[in-house]
Amino acid sequence: MGDFEVLERDGLARIARLSTPHGRIETPALLPVVHPDPARQPVAPSEFRDRLGLRALITSAYITWRTPPLRTEAERRGIHGLVRFDGPVMTDSGAFQQHAYGSVEVSPSEILEFQQRIGSDIATVLDVFTEPEAPHDVAASALRETRERARSARTARTGLLAVPVQGGTFPDLRSESARSASELGDVLAVGGVVPLLEQYRFVELARVLAAVRPHLTAGSAVHLFGTGHPMTFAFAALFGVDLIDSSAYHKFARRGSLLFPEGTVAIDDLREEICHCYLCREEPLREVARRPPEERERRIAHHNLLVSAEEMARVRQAIREGTLWELAERRATAHPALRAGLAEVYRHSEAFLPTEPESRRAFRAVVAESLGRPAAVRFARRLAEFVADESRREPIPRVGLTPEFLGRLPLADRSGSPIRWSTDTPFGPVPLELTEVYPVGPFLGPAEFERPLGRRSPSELSRELEERSELDVDLEHDWSDEWTRLQVEALLGFQYGREVARRLVPAVRGERSRRTGRLRRLTAEEGPAFVVGDDGVPRPTYRGGLRLLPCLPGRRGRVVVGDDAVPFVRAGRSLFARFVVEADASLVPDSSALLVDRNDELLGVGRLVLAPHEMRQLHRGVAVRVTSHPGASEPPEPLGPEGAGPEAPGADGDVRPPERSFIPSRR
Fold this sequence. Notes:
- By secondary structure, this protein is an alpha/beta fold.
- It contains 25 helices and 28 strands.
- The protein folds into three domains: 3-352, TIM Barrel; 384-478, no CATH class; 520-628, Archaeosine Trna-guanine Transglycosylase, Chain: A, domain 4 (Roll).
- It has an eight-stranded parallel β-sheet.
- It starts with a strand and ends in a 39-residue tail after the last strand.
């Protein structure tokens, strides 16, 4: 298998490195489709790296093989010499030509051996292309043949191998193909989807990817064949697609069409200078439109490729920021078919939940469907469990969870009967004490600006309570301390369960920020036990971990560290995937976990980079970043503007020593 390492992620999407003989590819990456004949390349590959920032490409081994002059040159100089590019080169095997023309003249073993001979960095199995309209028996037969070809190719191939995932539009066959491909491939290439993309059948594409993605190993890069238009890049990245090839930059140029993330524009229809990239500063598009046909096509292709490269960079930036869902939603407004495809994505939350992070810096609603994101689905499920055994709550408009408001909001009537409050949120009714928890707390939508939180004053709250004749309460009593205890119990109960909260609450007290009044720490007699960031999540310090450990049965909440890495994790260094012995399957990326040795002794507390199942599948990279350990100092008060999340890593109050890459000695 190849050398694949995940560096950062946002759900299924990941910033990763795939190592090849001609250098590393940082994903998600755009691989322009390049004709093997240099005379038919509208943009010289030599310009890819320097002017466009593109470090890899894909070309056709089949076209090279069937064209004698190109075959001779490739066998003499290698595929890199033929296409005049010294970076990673992936080669396709002829499956697309099979789709276009019905057959190819080369055998699977012959084209694979040819790819080996010409030095392809990533060779592709010649699969049996399955048309979307193929019946189940035909798709199943093609899948069996593709699987046999892939097994033979894996035996023969010494380098990186791309194994196609087929199965037509049938979820059972797609899942089966994904599992078998994962056993063989360094790159898992979802094929048979070009007709769906060409015909804007994004709903069906979403169903295919939802069936495939949960069964693809995290240890291999994922390639989606034919995703050429930049408006689709964020859509594909949501499903964790790492490699995207594009011939669209040239195909659209032939018809005089300009590609943009917001859609397609015919150059002959331009009346305004709508782009000011460096190419358009060199020569405005309206002048390009008047060029001779061949030169015009070349300039448009160059422009389309630049726009595509920039969009891929935006996708990577969104992954780093945790805003990929927002980007995908904005891009989906480019075309109704893509909007329908994204609506279908929301119906497949199960494919996303295992890698959906604990929280993000904010939850910004872009479209009405934003409230169907996996984060909202998971919150709703956890909330249903939390309130399952509760009696009715009193409704109240949302107020700030700070002493100035909470001191006036009663938690019991004059007879001593408890009162519990709920408030309407974009996610439905939520217990008031949980309204700072992600995704409710950092939610940003139009209503937040139409009726901003805090417009109601504490005195107005008191008047409102006085007018509620059904309540017999003492409005002179200061309820601040009771609210703090309730909020502490609710946060711990929501995070770990009510029984765990009942065991922890007597030993900790809540502390509020002197600056904002928000709950920021849970402190025990020995010092800070939990810190609460702007996502509302209580995260244990090492001291808190010592108290939490005996409250969680079995291996719950734990990541078990291999013996070689124990002393280094105890010292605060990151835990790498290959030294993980076991991990609680209920944890997700960004969860706080207790790092223990095989004897269940606490080594430290960390936040997950990888989901537990990914830790088993990846051989490189950080699995958990340690945030608190025995030698750590007391955490500072969290920083960051209200509702906007921490301003920098560590600002949520976690202790994060300087990152030190470490791989223990295997001697």
